[in-house]
Structures are given as structure tokens and as C-alpha cells.
UniProtKB/TrEMBL annotation:
GO terms for molecular function: hydrolase activity. Keywords: Hydrolase. It comes from the Bacteria. Residues 37-175 form the Nudix hydrolase domain. This is NUDIX domain protein. Signal peptide: none annotated.
Amino acid sequence: MIPAGMTEREYFEIHASQEEFLDWYYKQELPQYEKPSVTVDMVAYCFVEGNIKLLLIRRKAHPYQNCLALVGGFMDKGEDAAHACQREVKEEVNLELPLEKIEQLMTVSTPGRDPRGWTVTIAHLVYLPSCALELVQAGDDAKDVVFVDVDFQTGKCFLKGVELEEQAFAFDHYAIIQESIKRIQGRLDWNPTFLYLLEEEFTVYEGTELVNLINPGRPIVSNNFLVKYGEYVEEVGLKRVPKKKPRKTYRLK
């Protein structure tokens, strides 16, 4: 019974239980809002033989037919963004990627970014193991799958040594890639998630090489790697190197 002098809305929104409120709410004539489609796009890097590479697909169909694009797709109903990324990585690379190697980067909702209609994308950084290079396979919407080299000093991407212009990329994916570089470089010293690009066990020399590729303007020597990142790693064993002393190996804590 609604008390005298109180509106129905006030009663159910403030004084009723949540269960009673929801039962009342869904019986109202609610405003009909337009809803965007939601996608995930992944800036998926891997570190292979001294190079940072980015996984891209070449689109098979319109829009942006034959253009390069980030790996991604539409989210399924009831799915959160991180698990959508996991699913897409499984479909494209056949890898079960742990959630700690998936990092939300930005949400892009620029009007007109997708000619098919109102689409919002949740972009993520994804750190792939080097074995991804051999495991990739083109999905239904891909004509081909490619790994391009990324120069973190200039932000430029190269396919087989040829620089890729912004027009070579679908949607606003080139701009998202540039933002990913800024994110990784900006958190180099205080949240170095980029270390997930290293193998499960790695040496100080490999870690130093990766750091200097990401931030070539402020290179470090191998003796300083543990000074900067020692709190994030732990020693696990030794790695034999031809004609050199065995090197200590580390892994992320």
C-alpha cells in the first residue's frame, strides 16, 4: 500500500525492496533508447627473435575489404569484454590466453567510425607468446593473417620491410595502435605489463633487449634490468648459452 501523499514512483524507487522495484519497473512504459553494437579489438603483440610484432588480419569482405585490421569481433550476449578477447584469440591463434595477458586499453565511440552503423569498440592490449607466429589461422572474416613489425620509436608499422600508411588500416585501428604504444611506454617504470611479452622463463639480456625496443630513447644496460624490474621477477634457474657461461633465468611473479 502506497502511503498517502507519496507518488507511486517515489515509493517504488526509494521505499520498496529492490525486488518490488524491479517488478514495478519492468511494467512501466520505458523510453526506447537506440543501442550500439559492441565489439572488442585487440592490439596483440608478440616478441620474436629480437623484434616486436603485431598480429593483424587482412579483411576478406566489406567494409574495408583487403585492408589490415586488428583481431577482434562482436561480443556475444552475456559475455564480458576480457572473455570476448579470450574467445577471439582462441579462434584466431588457437591459444588459451590467461586473463592477466589481456589488458583493457580504451573505449572508442567516435560517431561514424563504422560505416555499417553505431558501433562502440573496447580495445585491449594482448600479449602473445612467440609461438603464436606458427599457430595463427585466418578466421571466417579474414582473407589472411599477418604479423607486422612495429617501431616503438616512430610508431610506424612495416610489412615485409615496407612501411604501412594509415590508409592501409581498417576503421580507426591505426590510431588505436598508436595509443597502445603510448600506453606501454607511459607505464614502463611503474606498471610494466609489457614483460608478459617475454617467454615464461627469460634472461636479463632478453628482458633488456625488449625494454630498449619499447623505449629506445632511454636505453638501459643489462646490469640495470633487475634494478628497475627486480620486484616483478624471480630467479628460477640457468640457461646454457653456446661458448658462454650459463645465464640465470627469471619469470614473472
